[in-house]
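User: Show me an example of a complex going from sequences to structure tokens.

Assistant: Sure. Here are the input components:
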Amino acid sequence: MSEQYLLEMKGISKSFPGVKALQDVSLQLKAGEVHALLGENGAGKSTLIKVLGGIYHAEKGEIYIEGKKVEIDGVVAARHAGISIVHQELVLVPYMTVAENIFLGREPGNKMNINRRQMSVEAQKLLDTYEMNINADTLVEKLTIAQQQMVEIVKAISLNAKILVMDEPTSSISDKEVGFLFETMRSLVKKGVGIIYISHKMSELEEICDRVTVMRDGQTVGTKVVKETSTDDLIAMMVGRELTNYYTRDYLEPGEVVLKCEHISDGKMAKDASFELHKGEIIGFAGLVGAGRSETMKAIFGLAPHMTGDVYVEGKKVTIKSPIDALKYGIALVPESRKEEGLYLVQSVKFNTTIEILGQFISKLRVNSKKEEEITQKYIEMMNTKTPSQEQVIRNLSGGNQQKVMIGRWLATDPKILILDEPTRGVDVGAKAEIYAIMNELVKNGMSIIMISSELPEIINMSDRIYVMNDGRVTGCLDHESVTQESIMQLAAK
Amino acid sequence: MASRFGNGVVKYFKDNIGIIIALLAMCIFLVIFPTTRTTFLTPNNMFNILRQNASNLFLATGMTMVIILGGIELSVGSVIALSGCVAAGCVVNLGLPEVVGFLAAILVGALVGMFNGLIICKTDIPPFIVTLASMNIAKGIALVYTQGAPIRCMTDAFKFPGAGYVGPVPTPVILMVIVFIIAALIINRTQLGRHIYAVGGNAQAAQFSGINVSKVKFIVYTYTGIMAGIAGMVTASRLYSGQPTAGDGAEMDAIAAVVVGGTSMSGGSGRLGGTLIGVLIIGVLNNGLNLMGVDSNWQYIVKGLVILLAVYVDFIRNKKAGR
């Protein structure tokens, strides 16, 4: 071995009934590096991480840590080997304090008498070491998602982790918080920790990662030094083909105003937002997390009981008290968090597609199953959703395909105005490009789209105009021809 | 049409194969077992099983909807007592016609159901606690009203729904068929049915989908109340009296039937067809143990173990199927 790796996974194979999830996968992690693990959903990243974390047992392959072969046959073994995983879904106990969470299961003191004081002091010391502005006695439920993530990291570090795996840690936190997170990561790397970093955001790779390993269809495609490669190269490696048009957008002359909103407020996060949307237009809503963008849209969609302000649809003033009213006026909203606000996880693709248009095929105690299947099929094809069948339980689809079913569900209501809240969050690149192409097609056919997004490249490349919000108010509107990331950030902080 | 019906039957067996086998195994055992060989498989005993479990089926149809909705309903047992006492009270104490007494029983059930539904929709109190409270309240009202003594009512008309016959078939068996068909239509062939699955699967998403979540909950709890009222009427009729202690623990039998039938306690999925088998499994089990002369104290233990086993087998099967 020419170089001593901190972690080396060699020839890992793992299959599930009917699927080869991993096939001869290898990964080398050096001490003191941030190593990105890249791949579309379903490429096998999570499976590989679960093998490393001792949750799955690989059929073939070896794992070496600091040159020594180790047998990881369970979560405890992984922890002993110095491996710690910060999962995408946070696993902290919300009703316990930060300190209690950090020391869960290994509280100082003896079994019958936990030394709370010592626990709190030690936790605070750890938090301060990494300059995290968090009080150890706060209840976890009071923290933001980013802070919770940092508590997870501190917990991992306090277990003396040498190898830290972070699974999409930035998918739900704001840019400012991402900054804090990266600083923490840098200081860990300096201390010799190796970090495996999973993310779909290409821009982050350049900022924080040293090397990157790309996976596709359960195999390793290759490992590159981030500085010596380009986003296009990586995307090509991930999807296995050149993506010529990542963003598809044909700008058209916008038509008349279809939606005009004045002084929208929900009494909480949305304070005073005014904007208008023309026929055939995509308008983007940019801003930091917590700027009130989603709340403004929810208010318009009839989900805020204390909403004030005026909404005009095609010139006529309308009152929208519930989503039922909104759908009646041709407004559809695809919500931000798929799992919480959108999906019926235990139900089928078919159920999830047709839940809003039941009236079209159920009446007088009759279900027209044929029609239901036709409708479902139409939107599966339109969105190019990959699913084995209409009866497939949606929980088993990848994030990108779940999102496609979601968009299909709201398209089935035949809206004039489609509001997409973070439409590509947690969606892999291939599916992202497809969603952009579909959005382009929809506006060409006369639909109007509002897109909320925290990904600036996406919002800049897809929108006709970009509204920027801060603290519940619209702070400016930028044209796609003159917009830059900097001009958006300035307005976002205004 | 005929082939679609055929498909439906095939799907029904496929969906419920585990518990159907369990039910058949129990029946075969009882047909072979020496002490029950001559007594189990007689028309009389078959009708007996159905009649004794009519109430449980009424409750279980409502309970299936409640559990798919992600809730629970504990007050149905007490409603059996209260509505039965009201039915008998109307006839005996107020001299009203039996029909009015029966309608009053159903109305009492509906009122308790509406009370549950209203509190569950308007507050954030969990259904478990709301219905635990109404269980005690309903039981208390029944005891206060009757002063703890049964109200006997021996008229033929009063005996009809629970102990009467239509031709050779016991009336409660006919009611069972009607109630089951209505419930099946609601769950499988109406928008409301889909909405129940949606609200139970993800209430927040249902709200985004333009479903009136409160209305769905209110209707389901009211429906379940009505079913409990009907169960109360049939039970009082079968016992020739309104008894303040009737229906004790009936809610647990209904929940058992639903979970044995494969409906998940976490909401969002479940099958009414499974519940039917669940009711029959519990019915045949009770009947079989009685015929075998098993001591009633031991019956509880056996019943508990069978419930655990049935749910566990179903759980394993679903896990294998990747559901």
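The lines above are the inputs; the final block is the predicted structure for all two components together. Chain A has 17 helices and 24 strands.
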